[in-house]
Amino acid sequence: MAAEPSTSSSSSSTLRDVLELDQPASSSSPDTARAPPSDSIRIPGRWSDTLSFASFRQPAKQRSKRPALPGLWASPEEPAARRNSDGDASDEPADDAETEREKEEQRERDRERDRELSRVAEKVLYQTGTDSGDPLGPLLVIAPVYIPPPTQLDHALLFDKLRLRLETFASSCPYSVVLLTTPAPNAPPTALLISTYLGLTRMARKNLRKLWVVGGGWWVRMIFTIFSTTLLSGKTAKRRKIVQVPSLSTLASEMGVELFTRVEFPHEVYSANAAIESSIKLPVDVPPRALGVSLEEVGSEAELGLPVLVKDCVNVLRLEGLDAIGVFRRSASAATVKQLQDAYDRGHPVTLLEYPDAAYLAASLLKLFLRSLPTPIFAPSLYPLIRSCPISLPPSATVFAPTAAPQAEAIQFIRTTLLPAFSKPTLLVLQPILSLLHEISLRSETNLMGADNLVICLAPGMVGGLGFAAEELEMCRVPGTMRRTEKARGKDETNTVGGVLRVMIEA
Question: If I label 17, which of 74, 125, 264, 305 is the partner at 20 to 30 A Cα–Cα?
Answer without folding.
Answer: 74
